Amino acid sequence: MDRVPVLKIGDILLVSIQVDMDDNTALALQDTLTERIVETSAHGVIIDITALDIVDSFIGRMLSTIASVSRVLDAETVVVGMRPAVAITLVELGLSLTGVRTALNVERAMELLELSRPARASSLSVVGDGLDVFDDDSPVA
Amino acid sequence: MDSVPESAELLRLTARGERDVFVVRQRGREVAAALGLDQASQVRLATALSEVGRYLLPTARPTTVAFRLVDASIVVTLTVPGAVPAQPGSPLTEGMRAAARLMDAVEVHQRPSSVDVVLRRHLPSHFAVPPAPELARIRAELQAVRASSVLDELGVQNTQLISALEEVQTQRDELLRLNGELEETNRGVLALYTQLSDEMEQTNRGVVALYAELDERTAQLREASEAKSRFLRNVSHELRAPITAVLGMLRLLLDPRSEPLSSEQSHQLTLASTSAQDLLDMVNQLLDLAKAEANRLEPRWGSVDLRAVFDQLRGTLRHLARPDVDLLVEDPDVPVLVTDEVMLVQVLRNLLSNGLKFTARGSVALSARYDEAAHRAVLTVTDTGVGIDPAQHERIFEEFYQVPGTKAGTGLGLPYARRLCEVLGAELTLSSEPGRGSTFTVSLPRSPGDASPIHTTVDLKPIPAAARRMERVLVADDDTMFREHVQRLLTERGITVTAVADGRAALAAARAERPDAIVLDLRMPHLGGLEVLGALAEDPRLDAVAVVLVTEAELDEIGMERAARAQAVLDKATLTDDGLVGALYEAAVRRGRDIPTQRSGSDER
């Protein structure tokens, strides 16, 4: 069974999906990631899908789920490295990747997460602001 | 476009399982790339295949995926064997809806044994369909890639594994079926076994019942046989009296002192007399046989010189021989035997007259020799007569049996001879072949002590010693004449004799003197012979004493039983001196054999 590695950079977890995902891999990734978030008290998750040629509705749903679960565990999720053809296909498929923020690359994603951190740390209301910010974001950066 | 076949297949592959989704969509992308479609179109086709494949392939059924070029469209057909739920709301329908956003048409064709999912995408209008050679090259390239694909290799191995598994499953099913058959057979065998053992049991019961019946029949036969013997005895007695009367009358008539007869009358009367004599002989034979059957034949032991016996036989039987037959009687070279002369003569006479009867020419010979080792005299009667078939050898010793085809004889002579031989401890055997004459052999013990088979003679060694201890004899008889006669007879032989006149005195003398043997009369005043016998039997100190019972009357069944203590019962009317002495020795021998030797050991006087 292929496993997806989860790397820790500061208080951010970096997930780089290099393999084709099926049901089991997806579930395993979800379990590993949630455990690692709790374990490291990470406040951000970056999922790199540069290696994926094809993102179908299954992967889309998986990304959404991971993002939702991570947010409940107090970590923001940013998807990076999406290819143009993949983006087109996602739009054609009608997938909105609800609750998932995107960035062009890892660097931009880390900046994005750095920006949201003080707000998040201040109060619960800011968390609510954060949520609003996510909702306003376009899926395509 | 016209140069292209209506449907040109570019690639066909078989996918199975979830992981193959990635293979299928990768191949789809390659097909699109090979046709020269742009990046977005490649991803679009691949994603559509992914959407559909994720719901079709995990069924683990081999799914055929065919890529074709039809009327300027890419057509991908996924064929799944069996049925796939495709109603609205099912996962497949969801996948197809997603795929439909990317393709121009997505259709499902439910077929009887499979489901086809067809994806169709029109090629862009600017896209030129490659000519046939170009298509062939594309096809070759795609297939070359396919051959080197590791995943396909795995797929092939997987397929082989699955087929192997299926085979194993089939074999297991076959084994189960065979096992079932075996169990069935086993049950059958068990049932058969039960049935067989039931039948055996039934047969067994039948056999047991048969045995019981046989026992019953045997008892009945024995009774019948005894009844027959009784009948014979009685009838013979009844017959004998009138025949004796007739013979007497004839003898009177033929007596030279009576009235003279004409020669014709004399001849006829002689014939009648001969016939009456024959009849009397036959009746006597019958009576003898009946006696033998009732086990009433008691041998009178005495010294017998075979020479005299042979002389007598030679004289009496000569006239029976036919003109062409010689009766040859040798002079025997055999020591004096202790046996019953009358019985022996009877045996030999029967055998000889039998031989003479069935021999038309040639000879009938009687010879004897002595077997030193076995202490037996071997007497042989040989004739050159008709002979006897081996199958008849045993039957001729049956009463009233006659060899088929023969007329002469009563069928009583040989059985009677055998009976007598048994009583004498002798063996009568026959060897004969039809047409070559017969040889009867009588193997006669030198004395009654030698009668037992040779192999037990070792056990009987003490017996002559016991017999030698014949030193004191008690004679009990109220008949003074007889008493004195016996006393004289025995004293002559160096034996101390005590003579008493009644049973009570006899018992007292026996207890006081403990003689070696007692000569006991049956009828005496005060205490009869049988009563004395009873008292003797109860006294263990007198165990070693041999008893010879003498009587004038014939004992009945009960008397015989009560006289069991006696070793011999002798008829006083026919008793000879030798007979009495022989019987005394024989009685001592028998008594010595019957009682345990330890008593004679502790009894030394």
UniProtKB/TrEMBL annotation, chain A:
InterPro entries: Bact_StressResp_Reg, STAS_dom, STAS_dom_sf. The gene is rsbS. This is Anti-sigma factor antagonist. Residues 2-113 form the STAS domain. Gene3D superfamilies: STAS domain (3.30.750.24). PROSITE patterns: STAS (PS50801). It holds the Pfam family STAS. It comes from the Bacteria.
Automatic annotation (TrEMBL), chain B:
Keywords: Coiled coil, Kinase, Phosphoprotein, Transferase, Two-component regulatory system. PROSITE patterns: HIS_KIN (PS50109), RESPONSE_REGULATORY (PS50110). It is an enzyme of class 2 (transferase). SUPFAM superfamilies: ATPase domain of HSP90 chaperone/DNA topoisomerase II/histidine kinase, CheY-like, Homodimeric domain of signal transducing histidine kinase. Its EC number is 2.7.13.3. The keyword Phosphoprotein applies. The modification 4-aspartylphosphate is found at residue 521. It catalyses: ATP + protein L-histidine = ADP + protein N-phospho-L-histidine. Pfam families: HATPase_c (PF02518), HisKA (PF00512), Response_reg (PF00072). Its main location: membrane. Residues 472-587 form the Response regulatory domain. Gene3D superfamilies: 1.10.287.130, 3.40.50.2300, Histidine kinase-like ATPase, C-terminal domain. Residues 234-448 form the Histidine kinase domain. One of its GO terms (molecular function) is histidine phosphotransfer kinase activity. The keyword Coiled coil applies. CDD domains: HATPase_EvgS-ArcB-TorS-like (cd16922), HisKA (cd00082), REC (cd00156). SMART domains: HATPase_c, HisKA, REC. It comes from the Bacteria. It is found in: Cell membrane. Residues 158-185 form a coiled coil. GO terms for cellular component: plasma membrane. This is histidine kinase. The lineage of its organism: Bacteria, Bacillati, Actinomycetota, Actinomycetes, Micromonosporales.
